[in-house]
Write a structure and sequence with these properties.
heterodimer, A: 112 residues, mainly beta, six-stranded mixed beta sheet, 1 helix, globular, B: mainly beta, seven-stranded mixed beta sheet, 0% helix
């Protein structure tokens, strides 16, 4: 089975940097995803890591360590619009790698 | 128009009623998924399908059934709805890369 853990909520200040951690346990790791979800809306894709290291995309970066079962999402130069839930999701090898399992999400509040 | 369309967007029903949530997509993807979302529990996988002849159970399939009528259509049914099935339901598709494209969600309330 799979187990994914991330903090329930975080608060940060506009203009600052915040790091959202995700730890996971899976029988056959095949990629880790981060999604952003604003209240009342559908999740949208942010990043994908399958190899160790840092992937950077504008103000957002995502890091993966497969040996530690650990990832983080780094948000720089925070803006008020970054207030949202951030979902960590893991894909495994079972059944042609078709299952994407989500953590419970981290609710980020950005304050002025 | 949205690439992934869910109907209805909102539904209130009573315990014991049969409910169907429909999903259609124009992205041409083979893989389709149904998730439910509850506060504090994130997205949980109910069923997924790789093509018309393929149906797989997810984490929480009890009390639900699905039908893949065509490549573009994947329906979720609650044969006899109960209050703890009150949730926000999302349909999603992917080409296989893993990036999911979600519908706008169907909010279901079972009284």
């Amino acid at each position: 089975g799979q187990n994914i853990d991330q903090p329930t909520e975080m608060t940060a200040t506009e203009g600052a940097i915040v790091q959202i951690n995700c730890t996971y346990q899976t029988s056959g790791f095949n990629g880790l995803f981060w999604y952003q979800q604003h209240a009342g809306e559908a999740p949208t894709f942010l990043s994908y890591n399958v190899l160790d290291g840092l992937e950077e995309k504008g103000r957002f970066s995502s890091f993966l360590s497969r040996s530690k079962g650990y990832s983080y999402l780094l948000l720089k130069e925070l803006q008020m619009k970054d207030s949202a839930s951030y979902l960590c999701a893991v894909r495994d090898h079972s059944n042609q790698g078709g299952k994407l399992i989500f953590g419970q999400g981290t609710e980020l509040s950005v304050k002025p | 128009d949205a690439d992934v369309t869910q109907t209805p967007r909102n539904r209130i029903t009573k315990t014991g009623k049969r409910i169907m949530l429909e999903c259609s997509q124009t992205k041409g993807h083979d893989r389709m998924y149904w998730y439910r979302q509850d506060p504090g529990l994130g997205l949980r996988l109910i069923y997924y399908s790789f093509d018309v002849k393929d149906i797989n159970k997810g984490e929480i399939s009890d009390g639900y059934s699905v039908s893949r009528q065509a490549q573009a259509k994947f329906s979720l049914s609650l044969e006899s709805a109960i209050p703890n099935q009150t949730a926000l339901y999302f349909c999603a598709t992917t080409s296989g890369t893993g990036e999911l494209f979600f519908g706008e969600g169907s909010r279901l309330t079972v009284l």
